[in-house]
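Dear support,

I submitted the protein below through the web form. The confirmation email said the job was done, but the results page showed an empty box. After a refresh the structure appeared. I'm attaching both so you can tell me whether what I see now is the final result or a partial one.
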Amino acid sequence: MDALIRKVREFRRQRGWDRFHSPKNLAMALTVEAAELAENFQWMSQEQSRRLDGEKHAAVAREIGDVLIYLVNLADKLGIDPLGAAHAKLAENHAKYPADKVFGKALKYSEYT
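What the results page shows now:
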């Protein structure tokens, strides 16, 4: 992750884009890229979304790359360790969604407590 953060910083620096990368702008760009990722699955069945052909798989990979780059940029701007944040959120989710209560269910935590 550290190597990716350094590469993203250098890419941004080389282009003089730092002034455009406010947390607000980065969050908005992240949302746009996430929507572009979702667009690849629009109108697909659940099963089709699990079996992407080569071209569609490559397009999804590119959009995942865009999402991750914007997420790394945003975390960097805010001084947040993205892996640390993910580990902390996973620990929180363990408490919210105990496996013995939610196994095989797609409910929000407030629906079973």
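Response: this is the final, complete result; the empty box was a page-load delay. The chain has a mean pLDDT of 96.
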